Amino acid sequence: MPHILIVDDDKTTCSFIEELLASPGRLFTSAHDPDDAIKRIHETPFDLLITDLNLNAARSGLDVLRTFATARPSSPVILISGFGTLETAIDAVRAGAFDFISKPFEIGAVKATVERALREGPMRPREAQSKLAADSGLLGRTAGMLEVYKLIARAADSDASALITGESGTGKELAAKAIHAHGRRAREPFVAVNCGAIIETLLESELFGHARGAFTGAISDTKGLFEQAGGGTIFLDEIGETSPGLQVKLLRVLEESEVRPVGATKPIKVHARVIAATNVDVEKQIAAGRFRQDLYYRLSVIVIAMPALRERRLDIPVLINHFIERSAARSGRRITFSSDALDALLRYRWPGNVRELENTIERLTLFSRAGLVDLGDLPPPIQDVPATREDTLFAGLPTLDEIEKRYLLHVLEAADGSRTRAAEILGVDRRTLYRMAERFGIALKE
Q1: Residue 217 in 3-state DSSP?
Q2: pTM
Q3: How would you classify the pairing of strands 273-278 and 190-194?
Q4: More confident residue, 109 or 124
Q5: Four-point Cα dihedral 30, 35, 40, 41, nearest 10
Q6: N or C: which end of the chain has fewer CB within 10 A?
Q7: At what angle do helices 143-156 and 86-95 cross, to 10 degrees?
Q8: Across the chain, what does the average pLDDT equal?
Q9: Tell me, what's the pLDDT at 83?
């Protein structure tokens, strides 16, 4: 009979999760602040912890996680997060988090994650490792990006090969650098090569090196990128552009951990971890005979799919603000957008993804005279995108925070400002009511 502890500062969320997961034989306990949760953890042998990351208190869900992992090392922990970062994911995975649930909840995914956690048990935390304060450059709070953070966190503590997929401009190299920067190889080199930008005859020498006299101009032995990477990471971008012949040699590197420089008679042992990336559908390439299936299996021990920007439109304002700040730091010029211009930026499908958005913001920063960017100042492909019915509906819908604020104001008005009565109507204690009011900037009557 599994006993599940649910921790969230919002009682409604706890009740919702309990109703969602209700099943014969399951017991539930809720806690609404980290101190109460930690107290209950020491008192009761729970089989699963589900905790929000942000508990609006001095301690966070990570503190509750660490306490639970120490007290109940054989029980899994699931984190809830609506605004996770890569650094948070790294900390959570290393502390032993089994998985993440993103807000807003997807009911099927929540149920499946809990069933899997109860069936499989905890994800064992790795030994403590030094964590470099590296700016990954990856930004976003949507469910798709939270999944990316989670996979990067798990890949960072592994030596397995990884394959990063996604359209051009989605941040595949940033993801590879983040895996390297947060892993035990972080102090070793990170060496990147674009396999599609180097002609075939030179790429083999570039990757594996060459012996003196191997070809005209080879006046000395030269180390390839695999050797130069040492015990670090080699990033093979656009791996799908390589020829079948080179794919055979890359497969040998992965299987034997050795390379044979061009013109050499003996192989050389290499120790670098391989992370590859592609913007093509590899499975279609395999079916067409353009990519080796055995190489794909070797590379795809860990697969990270970078979402296109059009699939995470709610991240666009966050990215715009980030790029404005970065451009302002370089140029000393800061821009703002009119509501029409911002709507157009949100409607545009961004075929070049985050890279295109970054370049657009930088260009507007350089050429904007007044500092205010209006619709007519945007590049024609962006300003000419018509608003669809979906865009209109999307723009008119309030956020969950806006709905909650409106409801709180309505309840306070109905209760004639009485904090006790308002708390009773909302079904929360007065301390939670104070936190809600403070969060939305609402002044409560004395």
Answers
A1: coil
A2: 0.68
A3: unpaired
A4: 109
A5: 110
A6: C
A7: 50
A8: 85
A9: 55
3-state SS, residue 28: strand
For residue 324, CA distances in Å to 83, 317, 358, 359, 376 come to 21, 10, 9, 11, 19
Helix (H) or strand (E) holding 93: helix 86-95
The pLDDT assigned to 207 comes to 92
Distance CA 398, CA 401 (A): 8
Nearest to 153 by CA among 91, 244, 90: 90
The residue among 357, 350, 370 whose CA lies nearest residue 327 is 357
d(CA 79, CA 99): 6
158 alpha carbon, distance to own chain's centre: 17
Decide which of 331 and 26 is more confident: 26
Quick one: pLDDT at residue 422? 83
pLDDT of 131 reads 33
Distance between CA atoms of residues 216 and 2, nearest Å: 71
Token representation of residue 85 = 């970062």
High-pLDDT (> 90) share of the chain, %: 42
Whether 193 and 130 have beta carbons less than 8 Å apart is answered as: no
C-alpha dihedral (402, 404, 410, 413), degrees to nearest 10: -100
Q: Which residues contact 252 (CB under 8 A, 6 or more apart)?
A: 258
Taking phi over 0 as left and psi of -120 to 50 as alpha, with beta for the rest, 130 belongs to beta
Rounded-to-integer distance, Cα 105 and Cα 355, Å: 29
Mean pLDDT across 11-25? 89
Helix ranges, 278-429 (H): 282-287, 293-299, 316-331, 339-347, 353-367, 380-383, 389-396, 400-414, 419-426
- Residue 15 CB-density burial (10 A; 0-12 exposed, 13-18 middle, 19+ buried): middle
- Burial category of 111 from C-beta neighbours within 10 Å (exposed 0-12, middle 13-18, buried 19 and up): middle
Q: What are phi and psi of 210, to 5 degrees?
A: -150, 155
The continuous run of DSSP H or E covering 52 comes out as strand 48-52
Q: Which residues contact 386 (CB under 8 A, 6 or more apart)?
A: none
Helix (H, G, I), strand (E, B) or coil at 381: helix
* CA dihedral angle for residue 82, residue 83, residue 89, residue 93, rounded to 10 degrees: -20
126 pLDDT higher than 50: no
Distance (Å, whole) CA 444 – CA 441: 10
Count CA atoms closer than 13 A to 390's CA, side-chain side: 4
The pLDDT of residue 406 is: 72
